[in-house]
Amino acid sequence: MQTSEELILFTVSVLPVFLIGSYIYKKDKNKEPTKLLMKLFLGGIGACLLVVFLNLFLYLIFPIMSIEESKLNLVQLFFKVFVGIAFIEELSKWIFAYNISYNDNEFDEFYDAIVYCTFVALGFACFENLFYVYQKGLGTGVLRALFAVPGHACDGVLMGYYLGLAKENELKGNNGLKMQSLLLSILIPTAIHGFYDYCLFAGKPLFALLFIIFVICVYIMVIKRVNKVTLVNKKIRFKDNFCPNCGRKVESDFCPNCGHKND
Asked: Where do runs of H (alpha helix) occur along 137-204?
């Protein structure tokens, strides 16, 4: 009986991670190496451990971080959620995503960055899910499958989008926009994550309503963003069979998409 219950908890914990990962992977027209994706997924687990370390340090500087969310007023909660939870978690995921993938030779398409960051986010979500679901039970697993895991994945997609912009601007020699995009690849997921948690922990009916509306809007926005990027399938490191002007695949020295003549 116990083994059966554990199997159910494990399935509920891992299945949403697998489904979202499969969706993101299948959208990639030119698949990334399995070895690289496994490194990124394990990097997400490493990010969980980094969060624990950073939080221990943060608690020493700001004792308020160790206080339970329900005991904080809305101003204190804002600080804890946006700095102690959202920023620390997104920064930790970003560190692993950037160091594992940003300078990898496989990173040659804009969508690759979304795949990389989402796999780190899913590794993080999987480890976190197993911890919470085994501790709190099936009900928590179902709720996290609907909200927490997709939430982490959405943060990963947005992180990857701006990391892709950073890489694109770097290759164009625009270091100013590169640095701006790198900063946004941390701040945008932090803002989304922070507002998500703030509404969740505020414990008031208005914030509960805002939470549902916000989550639906974010899910729709991220799905549209993924579909838009995969539709273009834009190259950011150009090879002989891709137009150096717009990145679209070409069969000759003349691009039928933008009219650029390739030398």
From this structure: 138-146, 148-171, 175-202
Structure confidence by residue, pLDDT tens digits, 196-207 = 999 999 988 999
254 forms beta bridges with 261
Length of the chain: 263
CA distances for 87 relative to 130, 185, 206, 231, angstroms: 22, 11, 24, 31
pLDDT-derived band of residue 250, with 50, 70 and 90 as boundaries? low
Task: Decide: 104 and 119 in contact? Cβ < 8 Å.
Answer: no
**Contact between 21 and 129 (Cβ < 8 Å):** no
- Which residue in this structure is represented by tokens 């399938």? 233
| Per-domain residue ranges of the chain | 2-232
Residue in this structure with the two tokens 């991220």, named with its chain if needed: 222
Closest by CA to 257, choosing from 236, 237, 233, 239, is 233
Cα angle: 101, vertex 27, 173; to 5 degrees: 40
Tokens 């809305």 — which residue?
74
Q: What pTM was computed for the model?
A: 0.88
CB under 8 Å to 46, separation ≥6 — which residues? 96, 123
Rounded distance between C-alpha atoms, residue 211 and residue 209, angstroms = 5
